[in-house]
Amino acid sequence: MILVSKTYGETPFNWASITIDNDLFVGNDNGYTNGLYISLYQVGPRQKESMTKPDFWVKPLLWLWPSNDAFYAINSYTLGQSMVTPLDTQEPIPSENELPYSGVLFLINNYVMVSPKKADKFSTTVGVVGPASGAEQTQNFVHDLIGSDRAKGWDTQMENEFVFQFSRARLWRNWVSKSSHWDLLTQAEINLGTIESSGNAAIMLRTGRLLDKSYHTPLYANTRVANPVAPSGGWYAYFGIQGGYVARWLYTDGTAFRDGPSVSYDRERLGVTAGVAFSLTKHCLVTLALTETNLLLGGDNREVKESSRFGTLTFAWQR
């Protein structure tokens, strides 16, 4: 199967990034335990007639909420692995109110179209949850490397199952200060699939330099990739609030097509995020984000609350 289509004359994959998620960044080692993501990007010139084209993974989604005034686009692929464990990883069999062990190995195709005052994202994710994801082996390797105890409950993890998700989002740049050093962004997103089905809205305040080159960045946050444009001397810091409703979340609801472990949680979502991004050189970018994805999720369930708190570190460079 051809996963990535590229013909002669199209934009090459000219950026790459590595992203690490870990709750150790926020002082924990449980809940959302860790994730590793490797991304490649096709970043075309800022000319409408030379825009990067979408691949077949996302083409069926382009009719949703169409955008006809985009002047450039970014196509990216991310290979990722994420995992969740209970708070008490030394119990061979987690209790019923604890998060189940789960690991997901997945491929994401993101296509982002950028317009003067808005940006649009179309995204398709496919993967597998269960032992086939290799999450247990990855976590054991990392814990051996840093001298932590191995988790003892991986034999109870979710069984192998194909997973998928389709996402559609739009971001607006609603306000820019006279100095151009501050801006205000709003965003709406719909997700549908066995990984997550939800509707979300967010607002973000940023300060920095060359903000007009990076305002579409929040569209990448949920897929753990970076804004693959690093203008020399550009940087920004941000604070955001997001809210929504979760109809399904793989890590708490469990597998979709077979019986397995799951936990109850409040499906209303309210979260905060803060971070900073800066260019080391014209061809290299670093981003750091600390996220509490849901202040409400789980109600009194400490397990679920802990799963929504993590940090993200990304290095992106031009190839």
Shape: globular
From the 3D structure, determine the CATH topology.
Answer: Lipocalin
Q: Helix fraction?
A: under 10%
CATH second-level architecture: Beta Barrel
**Taking strands numbered 1, 2, ... along the chain, how are they ordered across the largest sheet?**
1-2-3-4-5-6-7-8-9-10-11-12
* CA(first)-CA(last) distance: 26 Å
Rounded mean pLDDT score: 85
CATH homology superfamily name: Outer membrane protein
Which band does the percent of strand residues land in? Answer: over 45%
- Helices, by number, come to 3
- Secondary structure tally: strands: 12
Based on helices, strands and strand pairing, what is the structural class? mainly beta
Radius of gyration: 19 Å
Order of helices and strands: EEEEEHEEEEHEEHE
Low-confidence stretches are none
CATH class: Mainly Beta
InterPro entries: LpxR, Put_OMP_sf
Organism: Marinibactrum halimedae
Pfam families: LpxR
Protein name: Lipid A deacylase LpxR family protein
Give the secondary structure arrangement, pairings included.
Layout (H helix, E strand, L loop, with lengths): L14 E8 L8 E13 L28 E14 L16 E13 L3 E12 L5 H12 L14 E16 L5 E12 L2 E14 L25 E15 H4 L14 E14 L2 E9 L9 H6 L1 E10 L1
Question: What can you tell me about this protein's structure?
Answer:
The mean pLDDT is 85. It contains three helices and twelve strands. The chain has helices spanning 135-146, 250-253, 302-307, and strands at 15-22, 31-43, 72-85, 102-114, 118-129, 161-176, 182-193, 196-209, 235-249, 268-281, 284-292, 309-318. The chain is mainly beta and 319 residues long. It has a twelve-stranded antiparallel beta barrel with strand order 1-2-3-4-5-6-7-8-9-10-11-12. It has one domain: Lipocalin. The radius of gyration is 19 Å and the shape is globular. The longest helix is centred in the middle third of the chain and has 12 residues, at 135-146. Helix content is 7%, strand content 47%. This is Lipid A deacylase LpxR family protein. Pfam families: LpxR.
